Amino acid sequence: MNSFIHLLFALCLAHTISASTNYDWIPFLRTFGKSFGDIPGKGQASSVLPLSDGGAVVAGYVWNPDQKRGTRALIIRVDKSGKVLWERYLGDQSTSYAAVSIEGDLQRGFFIGGETSSPGQYSSDFWAIHLDADGITKFEGSFGGAGEDTLRDIVLSDSGDWYLVGTTVPISTGSSSSHGWVIKLSREGRKIWSKVLGDNEGVELIAATATSDKGIILSGLSRESFIQRKTDGYLAKLNSAGEILWEKTTGAKLQDRILSVMEDEGGAVLFAGVKDSSSEFPGLGWVQKLDGNGDLIFERTFGFRQILSIKPVKGKGYVVSGITYKTARGDEDVHSAWMAFLDPDGWMKWERILGGRGSDQAYEVRAVDDIGYFLCGATSSFGLSSQQLLLIKLDPLGRSSLEEIWAEDYALAKSRGTIDDFET
Fold first, then answer.
1. Which spans in 293-335 are helix H?
2. Are residues 74 and 63 in contact, defined by beta-carbon separation less than 8 angstroms?
3. Are the CB atoms for 141 and 192 separated by under 8 Å?
4. What is the Rg, in whole angstroms, of the alpha carbon atoms belonging to the chain?
5. Residue 55: DSSP 8-state
6. Model pTM?
């Protein structure tokens, strides 16, 4: 039995889940990517937003062959069965765009963050765009200076304001040190305030989350100098006015970085990332839970893993996703996408390795109540000639009762070189 069938398609079961929703839960697996002439598309799905109709919106990017260095942002909305309702490509021959984070809903629309730059120039700006449910632009803007400004996450508040979170390396200071940078926008895109964090230390902000007291938790990494290899995980809490309530660093002796952060129902903060990585060792998947003051409640590590996303599973625990360097085939130099369910105390209850013959990554996973998950990332498996965007809709248990049926379907897909036409 092909290990990919056993480990990936075990999750994609064609059955209906009874739940307090007005739609059937239909698991599926889709890849997306545009071919430009004879050049196959290449890209990744960076963020996924589940919708109340059982579908989802995916934000990512594809490489643009019209440019030597450039990408086009790609936003795709699918229905509950994975059928594309609409897609938006953003970018042209003179400007590069990449979408990395999406928030919102069908009523408020979709708030998307990323970065934009001109090919051949070593500078970039934060980029923000607000689309309605039909993909029509309501607002679009860019924010930055002469340096390199890299947006990594956005946060949408209950009031409708949104935060752009990332890193700036200003040229005007004459220093190569990085600083965390947060911009707060109104729903309409008007800048309310901006905040730079880091002082003389190098701080890179990678992820953020809203808090129940109308603040925001920021996370990423901190280093004493731009060229120093040692890094620590970095956390800070701001109030709605941008004032720092607390800051802390955490880590061990090697390279540690926080790649995702969330607040649970009780107000505790959980972060996930990578601990003890180096040029010789990929590091350990890393999860910590902190109380409202930033004090440690528990810490968990997972070998040969990088955790890129941690999200709540309502009333049950947490779901994490990322990559593993120890695939089912034993090739530690090949990535496989990976996800796991953690109980409220951080203990892993089950995990799934989602990997084929190529390299696969799971950039984000989100739970939909207790009926299933959406996972997005990138894949070069399935006989694809280049890395494409990956979207999987999963059931809650990962049962493998249909693996024999999927073996025949996979063989057919492999002969075609694509799985785009699969229907579960």
1. none
2. no
3. no
4. 21
5. -
6. 0.85
